[in-house]
């Protein structure tokens, strides 16, 4: 093997090594510097617990994140804030307590980062989940009727039951009630509020 060959192989190895190092810097070191704001005290969002935590799992299990994002983009990178989906961009610290943040990749429906600030009535959510078409005529959002159960009315209507005119095809002696899964899912949706103020190193949360 000539000296020229050794030098050429050495340059190859160096090239391959620098590709790895460059990738590591660009994908690990730089994002860590820019994004990883260490939370300080009350700057961290309130942790989820109880029903809300269960609801988050149901949100994941039903593939809601396949159509809905939970990321509000900064004002200079999209119209999210102008559309009223949040008062500020979301930041990594917003997901501080979440094991599986549902950022989502496709936005068929609206961003749900702050849906709990726009919609406050649990019954609105139950109607949406049972029959999305009633709220958004012609929508592609599928109904989630298996999150509801039919219970015999026993002469008295449960105040939690869906209005009869919204449950076509269900005999009048039955009433449609949200299941524990639907109740937890709606508790989670109502909890979605990432509008609390946050101090960041980057200072770019408008
Ligand atoms: C196939 C896509 C799709 C899936 C899956 C889906 N949605 Fe939707 N969703 C939509 C669309 C689209 C809209 C907006 C309504 C419209 O304009 O058609 C919407 C609207 C909503 C809204 C109202 C948001 C607002 O800003 O008022 C909520 C809340 C919601 N969906 C929750 C859910 C939940 C919870 C799940 C899972 C159980 C889910 N969606 C699954 C497509 C979807």
From TrEMBL:
Keywords: Heme, Iron, Membrane, Metal-binding, Transmembrane, Transmembrane helix. It comes from the Bacteria. It holds the Pfam family FixO. Residues 50-193 form the Cytochrome c domain. Gene3D superfamilies: Cytochrome c-like domain (1.10.760.10). InterPro entries: Cyt_c-like_dom (IPR009056), Cyt_c-like_dom_sf (IPR036909), Cyt_c_oxidase_monohaem-su/FixO (IPR003468). The keyword Metal-binding applies. The chain crosses the membrane at residues 12-30. This is Cbb3-type cytochrome c oxidase subunit II. It comes from Candidatus Methylacidiphilum infernorum.
């Amino acid at each position: 093997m000539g000296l020229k060959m050794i030098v050429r192989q050495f340059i190859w190895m160096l090239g391959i090594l620098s590709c790895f190092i460059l990738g590591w810097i660009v994908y690990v070191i730089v994002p860590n510097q820019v994004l990883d704001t260490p939370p300080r005290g009350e700057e961290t969002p309130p942790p989820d617990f109880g029903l809300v935590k269960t609801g988050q799992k149901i949100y994941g299990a039903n593939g809601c994140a396949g159509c809905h994002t939970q990321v509000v983009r900064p004002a200079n990178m999209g119209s999210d804030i102008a559309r009223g989906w949040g008062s500020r961009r979301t930041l990594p610290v917003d997901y501080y307590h979440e094991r599986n943040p549902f950022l989502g990749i496709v936005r068929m429906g609206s961003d749900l980062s702050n849906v709990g600030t726009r919609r406050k009535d649990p019954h609105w959510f139950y109607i949406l989940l049972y029959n999305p078409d009633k709220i958004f005529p012609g929508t592609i959002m599928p109904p989630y009727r298996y999150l509801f159960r039919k219970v015999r009315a026993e002469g008295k209507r449960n105040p939690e039951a869906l209005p009869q005119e919204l449950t076509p095809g269900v005999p009048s002696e039955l009433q449609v009630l949200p299941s524990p899964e639907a109740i937890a899912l709606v508790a989670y949706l109502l909890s979605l509020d990432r509008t609390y103020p946050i101090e960041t190193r980057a200072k770019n949360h408008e």
